[in-house]
Design a protein that fits this description.
Largest interface: A-B, 48 and 51 residues
Oligomer: heterodimer
Distance between the termini of chain A: 62 Å
Shape of chain A: globular
Number of strands of chain A: 0
Radius of gyration of chain A: 18 Å
Shape of chain B: globular
Distance between the termini of chain B: 32 Å
Order of helices and strands of chain A: HHHHHHH
Strand content of chain A: under 5%
Helix content of chain B: over 70%
Radius of gyration of chain B: 21 Å
Chain lengths: ~220, ~475
């Protein structure tokens, strides 16, 4: 088990990265939420495994926070929101998936070359995952740029948070506990506010298309 | 330390109490009372720090030194005067039907929680908690920006949330990297992210990790400072929210982000032993000044124009801290103080002027000095102060920044001079008719609270003429800590 652990963690890291790519190319809102849930679950698995191998109970707490928040509560809330707003089967118009994927690959290469000199210095056994974590953050960023609907943008935002938590877990074996709790609280409040927001936007514009939100510009 | 308990406890308790009774008519007074309590506690804390020197409290989780205690006092003071200003202002908004009782409750409760998050960000010793507080400050104001529920305010709030959320996520990545570097020296435990511990070992932090960490921290906190090119949320959020919110966003929240950036810069300078952090800050600061000035000259909306002016001034402050050294740091700190005071005073005056005119479009606001001389005088004096006319404090700090720039970074000085000149001309040309033109406006239903405007302007004037010796010593000490 101990011997296999680094490989297993790398496996989970790859899974998380693959899921980021899947999210970039997914058009359906409901499938996006499912992909996000699986990414959260992979993150929990990586944390638990790393906690077991390095014997750090703190990581279990961090994994539990992620499980409750990212795998159970947020997906449940998002499913509820899209059902109420009746955008469950919405298809997001995407500009040119192959090009976006190519840009994504370029981002991964960029992240790896940026992280390589630093991940060598990491004390954690999974230090090599820094590049993957950075790639997840940048891919989520790419997803937010290319989407035109509110719900996929929010999922991109949350997926970025996943990449950050993954970085904190693998590179440094988790942030200090008090900080982890603070981050979790911020994410929770943020998602609740975004939920309120989506209803307000819908009420005002009759759609969740954020192209409606492009009037405040400099002429 | 019990005083700090009150500084943080008053706004937190206020947020809870006002969440219950914030919609009642007396909630306005409760809001002022809690803000006053916070300010008194902050003053006592300041007196204690002046007497006893820096303190660490509650297992080192909180740290008060000359740098942050002056920010705490400033924040508590402007928080209090803004609460006083918002009493009649929000009442008029309610009469106009723009605010309903549930919205008033949200407004009052979030106002106090916002104060709490800013004070927490200043006083915490933990860089992770500083990040959490910054994010919480965004969250507590995002619903305030959209409180009128107009299409424009929803758009502004959405942009504010998403852009600042993405920006601040980069700062979290930077914090993770900082923790990674620190862990190798201090070991993995809760005290590793404490700023006092990091400051003690900053020379041993790995330079390659810290370089990358600072890049992310600069992008992250720079977004919240309103640094160009990450500024596009700022004019929208400041222009579309209620005016008291614009005043505290412009006057206070930008300072918290700047403070976070400064703490990170001190560590980076110590670890890298070179000018990288300073040069990056100078570059972005100068870019912000130039670009913001360009946009000032194109604005039609009065609150947007002053938002761009905030970007310009934060750029100037970033540039000053980027130059480093005792004089530029001193000037940067002084500029932060006077900018907070004067900019919030301007927003108070602008708030009543727009209420009177029923619009934020500058060409439709005319002759304020005839209808209500105090608003007119407040606005024109505030604008003269923010544009750096002597004898106001902005003149003193801009003078110090410009002379230091001419001596140490002569290439940058022409950009700064031209920008300040253009800003002067384009703001004056718009504000003069607003104050002195012919008008048909009617007086307001409730007497506006203009005491805060003149108190702020008075303080800005005092700081320009004479800085009291203890305040001077305090600035010098804080500037020395920033080093560079």
């Amino acid at each position: 088990m101990i011997k296999l652990a680094p490989q297993l963690i790398n496996l989970f890291a790859t899974l998380i990265l693959m899921l980021s790519f899947a999210m970039i190319s997914q058009r359906r809102v409901v499938s996006l939420i499912n992909l996000f849930t699986i990414q959260g679950a992979a993150l929990v698995a990586a944390s638990v495994l790393l906690g077991y191998v390095t014997n750090q109970p703190d990581l279990y707490v961090s994994a539990a926070l992620t499980l409750v928040l990212k795998v159970v509560f947020i997906p449940w809330m998002l499913h509820r929101v899209i059902r109420k707003l009746n955008v469950r089967w919405d298809v997001d118009t995407l500009i040119n998936i192959p090009t976006t994927m190519l840009v994504g690959i370029a981002l991964v290469i960029f992240s790896f070359s940026l992280a390589l000199p630093i991940s060598r210095l990491s004390t954690s056994m999974a230090g090599g995952s820094l590049g993957i974590a950075l790639a997840c953050v940048l891919l989520a960023f790419l997803m937010m740029i290319t989407r035109s609907k509110a719900v996929p943008q929010v999922i991109g935002f949350l997926s970025m948070e996943n990449g950050l938590i993954f970085a904190a877990t693998t590179v440094t074996n988790g942030m200090p506990m008090i900080v982890e709790f603070g981050i979790a609280l911020d994410v929770l409040v943020g998602v609740l506010i975004l939920g309120v927001f989506m209803f307000q936007i819908r009420e005002k514009f009759d759609s969740l298309d954020i192209h409606n939100l492009e009037t405040l510009k400099e002429d | 330390m019990s005083t700090l308990f009150f500084v943080l406890g008053f706004p937190l308790l206020g947020g809870a109490v006002l969440a219950l009774v914030g919609h009642r008519p007396y909630a306005r007074d409760i809001n002022v009372a809690f803000s006053l309590g916070t300010f008194v506690a902050a003053c006592v804390l300041t007196a204690e720090i002046i007497a006893d020197g820096p303190i660490l409290v509650w297992h080192d989780q909180f740290f008060i030194d000359p740098l942050n205690v002056f920010m705490v006092t400033l924040t508590a003071f402007v928080g209090m005067t803004t609460a006083i200003f918002s009493r009649p202002y929000m009442r008029i908004e309610q009469d106009h039907g723009k605010m309903t009782p549930p919205r008033m409750r949200l407004y009052h409760s979030m106002y106090q929680l916002f104060s709490f998050t800013m004070l927490l960000g200043f006083t915490t010793n933990n860089l992770g908690i500083l990040w959490v507080a910054m994010e919480a400050a965004t969250l507590s104001t995002v619903l305030l920006v959209s409180v009128y529920r107009t299409a424009a305010s929803l758009e502004a709030a959405w942009k504010y949330f998403i852009l600042c959320g993405v920006g601040i996520a980069q700062a979290l990545f930077g914090t993770v990297l900082l923790y990674m570097a620190a862990e190798k020296v201090l070991g993995p435990h809760g005290a590793t992210l404490l700023w006092t511990n990091l400051d003690a070992i900053k020379g041993q932090l790995d330079p390659s990790i810290i370089t990358l960490a600072f890049a992310f921290l600069l992008i992250g906190y720079g977004t919240k400072v309103g640094m160009v090119p990450l500024h596009s949320w700022l004019p929208d959020a400041h222009a579309e929210g209620p005016t008291p919110v614009s005043a505290v966003l412009s006057g206070l929240l930008l300072n918290v982000a700047m403070y976070a950036l400064l703490r990170c810069k001190v560590l980076t300078d110590g670890a890298l032993q070179n000018q990288l952090a300073g040069q990056l800050m100078m570059g972005f600061g100068l870019l912000s000044v130039v670009v913001a000035t360009f946009f000032i000259s194109r604005q039609k909306d009065v609150k947007r124009m002053f938002s761009y002016s905030s970007i310009e001034h934060m750029g100037l402050i970033t540039f000053a801290f980027g130059m480093g050294g005792p004089v530029a740091n001193f000037a940067g700190l002084l500029h932060m103080t006077v900018h907070s005071l004067i900019k919030s005073a301007i927003f108070f005056a602008v708030g009543h002027a727009t209420q009177k005119a029923g619009t934020q479009v500058m060409s439709e606001i005319r002759g304020l000095i005839k209808v209500n001389p105090t608003i007119g005088w407040g606005l024109i004096l505030g604008v003269m102060a923010i544009l750096g006319m002597p004898p106001f404090g902005v003149f003193a700090s801009e003078f110090l920044i410009l002379t230091t720039a001419m001596r140490e970074q002569p290439w940058a000085a022409p950009f700064l001079f031209v920008s300040l000149g253009v800003a002067f001309a384009s703001m004056m040309i718009r504000v003069l008719p607003m104050v002195f033109g012919e008008t048909t406006l009617k007086p307001l239903a409730h007497p506006p609270a203009l005491v805060p405007v003149f108190v702020h302007l008075g303080l800005g004037l005092v700081l320009g003429l004479y800085i009291p010796p203890y305040l001077n010593a305090w600035y010098v000490e804080a500037a020395r800590m920033l080093g560079g």
